[in-house]
Design brief:
The protein has one domain: Rossmann fold (3-Layer(aba) Sandwich). The longest helix is centred in the N-terminal third of the chain and has 14 residues. It has 6 helices and 11 strands. The relative contact order is 0.18. It is 31% helix and 23% strand. Strands 5-2-6-7-1-8 form a 6-stranded parallel beta sheet, sandwiched between helices. The protein has a 3-stranded antiparallel beta sheet with strand order 10-9-11. Strands 3-4 form a two-stranded antiparallel sheet. The protein binds zinc ion (ZN).
Length: 213
């Protein structure tokens, strides 16, 4: 039976490029693929775009509570060699469970690309928690996402009007239309320094560390 894979990284980690290269390899060899993304990802509209200019049209632009297990969507993917999902963190838990079912009962491999954590440094969504729970393989995409200090980036910090934000709505897409929203990949140390340092929780932990050192 087929497997379901979750490939994660921080922002700018090369996820979309990896997805598009995978799509290209299959299609170059005349294998059908199905590319899925959530309608919540307004960036690129019904297209998946990588930073280096590669792009491909989406086959299923999945609505918030839309099922993949209906005849209409089944017709789109049932002959596919692989199902690729971009920005999988935007899918809900039920949709992730359906993809898992497609891999294991319909025998189509599924590769989900997405973020692990949100700008608050917490698991991005129930969907991501479920990806970690059920995927057969979980791996980090390369290590191309670098922090400003040169270390590997782990966190996705949000900047509003050029200032780091520690609170706000869970999902705020930087689709180029909101000039004040920006995401910055940071390593753990820089994330702590820039984003968490003023929180009560971080102050408490820093005090504890100062006491024991
Ligand atoms: Zn850093």
């Amino acid at each position: 039976m087929a497997e379901m894979i979750f490939k994660y990284s921080a922002m700018s980690g090369g996820k979309t490029l990896n997805l598009l290269q995978t799509a290209y390899s299959y299609e170059e060899n005349h294998f059908k693929i199905t590319l899925i993304k959530s309608i919540k990802d307004t960036k690129g509209k019904n297209c998946v775009l990588s930073r280096n200019g590669m792009s491909r049209n989406v086959d299923i632009l999945l609505k918030e509570n839309e099922t993949l297990l209906n005849a209409h969507n089944y017709k789109k993917y049932y002959t596919s060699k692989v199902i690729l999902v971009d920005e999988a963190e935007l899918l809900n838990k039920e949709q992730i469970q359906e993809l898992w079912t497609i891999a294991h009962l319909i025998n189509i491999p599924v590769i989900c690309y997405g973020l692990r954590s949100n700008f608050k440094g917490e698991i991005f969504s129930e969907g991501v928690a479920h990806l970690f729970a059920v995927c057969d393989i979980i791996e980090e995409v390369g290590s191309t996402s670098l922090c400003e200090c040169g270390k590997r980036a782990v966190f996705n910090a949000r900047k509003i009007n050029d200032k780091y934000a520690s609170d706000g709505p869970d999902i705020l897409i930087d689709d180029g239309t909101k000039k004040d929203v920006e995401y910055v990949p940071l390593c753990s140390y820089c994330y702590l320094k820039h984003v968490k340092i003023n929180s009560e929780e971080a102050k408490k932990l820093a005090n504890l560390v100062a006491k024991i050192r």
